[in-house]
Amino acid sequence: MEEEEIVNRVANSSLINIDLQDFYPKGERVLYDLKQNLWQELVLKETEFRAFVKENDWSQYQDKYVAIDCSVDAILPSWAYLLLTVALSPYAKKVVQGNLKTLELVIFQDVIADINVNEYADKRIIIKGCSDLPIPDQAYVDLVQKLKPNVKSLMFGEACSTVPLFKK
Fold it and tell me: Which residue of 16, 78, 117, 146 has the fewest C-beta atoms within 10 A of its own C-beta?
């Protein structure tokens, strides 16, 4: 009895797999909590805060992604976030106002904005859904919006079990 050759039809198909995990930017994500700069966890004193920003060694944030937030309920002036951003920008890869979840969303907005949709023009695309990394659901939504006008079809999941999303 002759054995039949096993053929990987998925590998030989015209399907293109996009795994957002492949685009995941390397770099530590950190939260800068403004709580540490508040007087009695209530008020930000401008003079003391400006002195702190000027004297602090911001190089510890070199090549990190930084979210600036405040973990206590305090009224903070907008310029506090801006002043920190000015100090962090020469070192950090990215600075956002918000928590770590917001940071990840903004990082992926940048990632998806940089994707060249022309290489996917009129192609059949599978967006891989499982990831070992914390990829926000919004990143998948943004990716679909970016790809849809250019592709022949969009599917979600694994090649063996996809969920159809769009077909021209």
Answer: 78
Q: Which of 94, 146, 156, 101 has its CA nearest to residue 125? A: 156
Using an 8 Å Cβ cutoff, are 70 and 33 in contact? yes
69-79 burial, b if ≥16 CB within 10 A, otherwise e? bbeeebebeee
- Cβ atoms of 76 and 70 within 8 Å: the answer is yes
Residue 37: CA count within 13 A, CB half-sphere: 24
Q: Dump pLDDT digits (tens) for 115-168.
A: 999 999 999 999 998 888 889 999 999 999 999 999 999 999 987 788 999 998
